[in-house]
Design goal:
The complex is a heterotrimer of chains A (386), B (274) and C (291). Chain A has 386 residues and is an alpha+beta fold. Chain A is built from 9 helices and 20 strands. By secondary structure, chain B is mainly α. Classes of the chains: A alpha+beta (386), B mainly alpha (274), C mainly alpha (291). Chains A and B meet through strand 6 and helix 2 of A and helix 7 and helix 8 of B.
């Protein structure tokens, strides 16, 4: 169980968080969907719940929405305990995965629904509806029916419907899944802009790490019902704490290294397959016993491949075992004794392709900038290899 | 294309063509009796004879004169309408509650509510006649109403459950998030969306009631004869084309109803006859 | 209404009202469906002796199961139903196959044509068969005209008419059942089999047929149950040549007014129906679909 608050966002630090979950737990029969989970979402920010299917992100969202009751814990929205309130009373806005626009109502009637339920006067309702449709760029479509609109347009109507009631929080349940790539990117941008302009606290559920990275101020990475790590996109991407996080966001090379010694704030490690050599250092918060195994993650874009002559003599060696040309980058596969999976390294194409490519079979040296090799917190039993 | 090639093409399609022939014969078999009845209803002869040599509408005119037939038609329509309404009042709330439930109890209730479909109606007829006589209702419109409602409830429940399940929870959840109370959700979202299901279920109930013979036989009397019962005695006593005429009329009503159901809800869900 | 109060169980969905709304329907059926049937069943266990008092006795059942005539009737009921079921399978499967695989946009029309006869009065359909099968009916006229027979066939008032009538009424149920399952079979499975060398017939026998067994089973149960309970067809087309349990009950009821005995026979019929119902439920449960 982790309780985390991301880095302070200037004056928002002292204010009430938009959403606070304390010890939320949920099981369906014998299946545990959510281990005790807590986190805060600062007011006015967008937080993404990211993870593979079954990780508990949707359950969390539904508990926040009020469609499920947690087995334990509290849900505080803008400081008020809403744990057992029905969805009607929570003043939320939600965009569903397939939009769930009422098929028997026009666009305008859909958008106006929440206002009607609240008993707002007709004139005011119409005015607000019209304004909202303008904001989402659909002023001409008020009298159309949902099935007459494209996917992207339906999405915008769903957004409009959820925001027109001026809710205290917006929930997005994988809203962009049904759209094609270009439209998705455009909507990501638009939703983000809208969210920023209005300044509404938003919770986004997605399995798409790119989406999470693009759209949010804070990412909560979940797996099997628990939070693996929570933080800003940069933090979660550049400083992953566990193997799962480093592999779920982007790609990572995972190396099981032997611990040679600790040195006040850093560890000295040796790569698998090396029997001698002084190894390399990584920053470490806590020390590890000598001889134990520690997992280190290096991203392919940080793994630099140099010819043997250019590199330091102690630099670890590898053989190029594969190569893929991806237009802007080369992807090299590198083999070393002691690895069961080849390493991946990206190299930017900076000149004519022939110049920056490496031929298979070539022996190369590996280096990386200090700080780009991260020590992971996973515990490893001594027998398990890389 | 060579001769061998052409033969190959035919050979490939042979199974499908044979199947098509079979299917055509099948539908001829299925529709033949009905077709002939319609044909005979327009016959201009005193008795039922085939082939039909002359055509006229005389038997349709005869229908209008034959009071018992008309009276029983009216009676049957009243009964059908009333039992459909009752079945809906009982069945719709039950269907809504059952459609979203997954517990063992819900399964049990569901099976129970659909059970009348599986029990031979003759048994129900006898049993109900005695039960209702015992409590003083005997042979009356009320008894018929009760009996027809019992067999109509499963149709309404089955139809509404299928339609409601097909809609999915999301619309109601969306309405809830937008602030609608339970009553508002039901009125503005659920009801409009399942309306077609309720309509079709009731229509099925009407059709079942109109055609019901096995049950109605037990509750027949001079005042409480339904159309099928009257038709049966007519068939057994006077074998003439008037039967064909009334049958054709009834079929026309049923076809119109079926078309309505097809337009509103579609007939797909009939594929699970359970 | 507010949601569940804040106690332990997170089970209650904030949107539902639980199972309470089923109560009116359940009570109605308990009173006018279960109770009458149960009471009727009980009736069969009480024999009115010569003293006018009713005493618990299995006499009716003993009579029923020891008399060869009645055993024959029960046997005939099952036999007729089985025969009708088998014929429906043989006729219905090809039609269902065609409907799913070859009909394309005619599929909807086919379903309509299948269901429409179900809603026409059984009187009408019986009348129609009368017209067709009578001594001077359509069929005999055509056959004689074609020179295939010399004297008219006696089809009415005969078991064959009953079977024809039954199959005519019940085969749509079989077709719909099988079609529903066939629709779910991925054609790519068949294509894979053909690529691997199986002839069309082999593919059908080893891939399609086994996968569609569910539909056949479901259809068979439904047809069997419906055939079991039918007596109008026997009455109107059989003319006494086919006496099944429901028909016997009907006659007993009308003529003899021996309620206890009729109830005993009814119970046997009911047991047949309930057994079929259970088998049907087991099949549905396996699919995962609930009614």
């Amino acid at each position: 169980m982790t309780q985390t608050t991301p880095k302070a966002q200037s004056s928002a630090e002292q204010a009430e968080p938009g959403l606070r979950l304390l010890g939320i737990r949920k099981a369906f029969g014998s299946v545990v969907a959510l281990r005790p989970t807590s986190f805060d979402v600062p007011a006015g920010t967008m937080c993404a719940l990211l993870g593979p299917s079954g990780c508990g992100k949707t359950t969390t969202l539904r508990i926040v929405a009020g469609f499920e009751l947690p087995d334990a814990g509290q849900v505080l929205i803008r400081g008020e305990d809403r744990t057992y309130d029905p969805p009607q009373r929570r003043k939320l806005g939600m965009v569903f995965q397939n939009y769930s626009l009422f098929p028997h109502m026009t666009v305008a009637q859909n958008v106006a629904f929440g206002l009607r339920m609240a008993g707002m006067a007709r004139a005011e309702t119409e005015a607000r509806t019209r304004r909202m449709l303008d904001i989402v760029h659909l002023p001409q479509h008020a009298d159309r029916y949902p099935h007459q609109l494209s996917g992207g347009q339906q999405q915008r109507v769903a957004l409009a419907r959820s925001l027109v009631t001026e809710p205290s929080m917006l929930l997005l349940d994988e809203p962009l899944g049904a759209l094609d790539k270009n439209l998705r990117e455009q909507m990501q941008f638009e939703i983000r802009q809208l969210q920023r302009e209005i300044g509404i606290t938003t919770l986004l559920v997605t399995h798409d790490q790119e989406e999470a990275l693009t759209m949010s101020d804070m990412i909560v990475v979940m797996n099997r019902g628990e939070i693996m790590q929570a933080g800003s996109p940069t933090e979660v991407y550049e400083r992953p704490r566990t193997r799962f996080v480093s592999e779920f966001l982007g790609t990572s090379n995972i190396l099981a290294c032997a611990v040679l010694g600790a040195d006040g704030g850093s560890l000295r490690l040796r790569l698998p397959g090396d029997d001698q050599g002084s190894g390399f250092t990584v920053a470490a918060a806590a020390s590890r016993p000598v001889g134990s195994t520690a997992l280190v993650a290096i991203r392919p874009e940080h793994l630099q491949v140099k010819s043997v002559s250019e590199a330091q003599p102690e630099a670890p060696r590898a053989t190029v075992s594969g190569h893929v040309f991806r237009g802007a980058t080369h992807v090299f596969q590198l083999q070393r004794p002691g690895l069961d999976k080849p390493l991946l390294a990206y190299r930017q194409v900076t000149g004519p392709v022939g110049e920056t490519a490496l031929s298979p079979g070539a022996e190369v040296a590996l280096t990386w900038l200090p700080g780009t090799a991260r020590l992971l917190e996973d515990e490893i039993a001594p027998e398990v290899g890389a | 294309m060579s001769a061998a090639g052409q033969w190959r093409r035919i050979e490939r399609r042979l199974p499908a063509l044979l199947l098509l022939a079979f299917v055509l014969v099948f539908f001829a078999f299925l529709l033949a009796p009905i077709a002939f009845v319609v044909l005979v209803s327009f016959a201009d002869s005193e008795i039922v004879a085939f082939p039909v040599t002359a055509y006229s509408l005389r038997w349709y005119h005869r229908l209008l004169e034959y009071r018992p037939l008309l009276d029983s038609l009216w009676f049957s329509l009243k009964l059908a309408g009333a039992s459909a309404v009752l079945a809906a009042l009982f069945g719709v709330p039950a269907a809504l509650a059952l459609a979203r439930s997954r517990s063992g109890l819900a399964d049990l209730v569901s099976t129970f509510l659909l059970a009348p479909l599986s029990i031979p109606m003759i048994l129900l007829g006898i049993a109900l006649l005695y039960k209702l006589s015992a409590i003083g209702l005997g042979i009356s419109f009320t008894s018929l109403l009760i009996a027809h409602t019992v067999v109509s409830i499963p149709y309404v429940v089955r139809t509404v459950v299928a339609v409601y399940r097909g809609i999915g929870r999301n619309y109601e959840e969306a309405a809830a998030i937008l602030g609608a109370s339970r009553r508002q959700i039901f009125t503005y979202v659920t009801l409009p969306l399942i309306g077609s299901g309720i309509f079709s279920g009731m229509l099925f109930a009407v059709l079942i009631s109109l055609d019901n013979l096995s049950l109605s036989l037990f509750f027949g009397s001079a005042q409480t004869n339904t159309l099928p019962v009257v038709m049966l005695s007519y068939l057994q006593n006077q074998f003439d084309p008037a039967i064909a005429a009334i049958g054709t009329v009834q079929m026309a009503i049923a076809l119109v109803a079926l078309l309505l159901i097809e337009r509103t809800v579609g007939l797909r869900f009939m594929s699970s006859p359970s | 209404m507010t949601a569940a109060a804040g106690t332990t169980s997170g089970r209650r969905s904030p949107l539902g009202a639980g199972l309470w709304p089923v109560l009116p329907a359940v009570i109605f059926l308990l009173l006018f469906f279960l109770l009458p049937l149960a009471e009727n069943g009980l009736q069969s266990l009480y024999v009115t002796g010569s003293d006018g008092k009713a005493a618990f006795s299995l006499a009716y059942y003993v009579h029923l199961f020891s008399d060869a005539y009645y055993l024959g009737v029960i046997g005939k009921t099952i036999w007729v139903s089985l025969l009708a079921t088998v014929i429906c399978i043989l006729i219905g499967y090809p039609v269902a196959y065609f409907m799913v695989r070859h009909a394309g946009r005619w599929n909807g029309a086919m379903i309509f044509l299948l269901v429409a006869p179900l809603l026409t009065s059984i009187i009408m359909r019986t009348f129609g068969w009368n017209v067709i099968l009578a001594r001077n009916g359509v069929l005999n006229n055509v056959l004689q005209g074609l020179g295939l027979i010399e004297r008219p066939l006696r089809l009415l008032q005969d078991p064959s008419a009953v079977i024809i009538g039954l199959v005519h009424v019940l085969v749509p149920f079989m077709v719909i059942s099988i079609a529903a399952v066939l629709k779910g079979i991925d054609t790519r499975l068949e294509e894979a089999a053909e690529l691997l060398g199986a002839s069309r017939w082999r593919t059908f026998r080893e891939i399609t047929l086994p996968l569609s067994l569910d539909g056949i089973a479901t259809g068979a149960i439904v047809v069997f149950m419906l055939a079991n309970g039918s007596f109008l067809t026997m009455l109107l087309l059989g003319g006494g040549s086919v006496v099944t349990l429901p028909l016997l009950i009907y006659q007993q009821f009308l003529l003899v007014q021996n309620l206890g005995f009729a109830a005993a026979m009814g119970n046997v019929l009911l047991v047949l129906a309930v057994i079929s119902l259970f088998i049907q439920l087991r099949l549905i449960r396996q699919d995962g679909a609930v009614a």
